[in-house]
Design a protein that fits this description.
Blueprint (H helix, E strand, L loop, with lengths): L7 H18 L3 H12 L4 H8 L5 H41 L12 H6 L9 H15 L3 E2 L5 E3 H4 L19 E3 L6 E3 L5 H11 L7 E10 L11 E11 L4 H16 L5 E8 L2 E10 L16 E10 L1 H7 L7 E8 H9 L12 H4 L3
Parallel strand pairs: 1-5
Antiparallel strand pairs: 2-4, 3-4, 5-6, 6-10, 7-8, 8-9, 9-10
Helix pairs in contact: 1-4, 2-4, 6-11
Bound molecules: zinc ion.
Zinc ion (ZN) binds next to loops.
Length: 365
Amino acid sequence: MTFDISNIEQQSQSLIQEAEGLISQANSMDELKQTKQDLMGDKSPLSQMHRKIGTLEPEQRKQIGRLLNEVKERIDGLVSKRREELEAQESLGQRQESQMDLTEVLLFSTSATAALGYLTRGHMHLVTQTQIELEDTFVGMGFFVAEGPEVETDWYNFEALNMPPDHPARGMWDTFYLNLGAPESILLRTHTSPVQIHLMESAVQGEDGLPIYAVMPGRCYRRDTPDARHIPVFHQIEGLVVDKGITFADLAGTIEAFTTAYFGSSIHSRLRPSYFPFTEPSAEFEITCTICEGVGCRTCSNTGWIELGGCGMVNPRVFDAVGIDSLVWSGFAFGFGIDRCAQMRYQIADMRQMLENDVRFLYQF
Ligand SMILES: [Zn+2]
């Protein structure tokens, strides 16, 4: 742009217009810096105009000097405004870049990649998964889930369940005692049945009331020497129903409904007479072999059936112990191993693998 004193006003206007266009097109700090240099640097038309002021008459010099200063301030303002815009954009971009995508799925959850040491997302242990599935099945059948302490007194673990100190049935469990003897033995519960006693006690004392339809999952302890089918810490789930007019047919029907709901419609249940001190009559319940579906195989010794757990009608002496009138109320109880259930469902040869925390094993489930 050449400097012509005769139309200085018009030139100033077009200089500002040109600056507006160039500054708005600058898309980075570097571009803006260059644009500012072009518009206001030593070689810019503005500087050239400034340099010629000295050749003018004093009156004109004052007037045009003021005009050019206004142009300079205007361009400065435009540059500052654009700089603020660019800074805001840049900081937004940095924030977006540093954000984590919490929905991203890691695709390394196989045993092979786990063994290679890739970072993988954890998941629940097989036993926990099985426990939750069992709880869901029973909740769907109208039961609620109850829990109780793992450290128990002799009374809750044995005596209230119709096993007095000299009862031969105590020999069925090798117990971990924490404090054997007077005034009362403290032990790690050998089964989840003590929770039945807690539930019935609080029902009688009016906290929850009767009837009871509950399942009680949890950890149990026995002095088993670990082998393929026994571990010293295992998980049981136990069911208790106390209501008026409950019969053995209700028990058999509940077991069958659970079996088909959990294992599938091709798996059924049957009861065989057995003995437990806290139920009378008692039964063992078996389900169709999940491997051969009843045809007969090595796992089920060619019978087509596998034993899952025990059950029976609540013994009136248990009702007596907690103060429930057995002439008015009746009920049934059942229980089985959660680990055993998982073992059968996933055909795990050795139960000890569930305790070993080997990720190559755990990642398969
Ligand atoms: Zn079989």
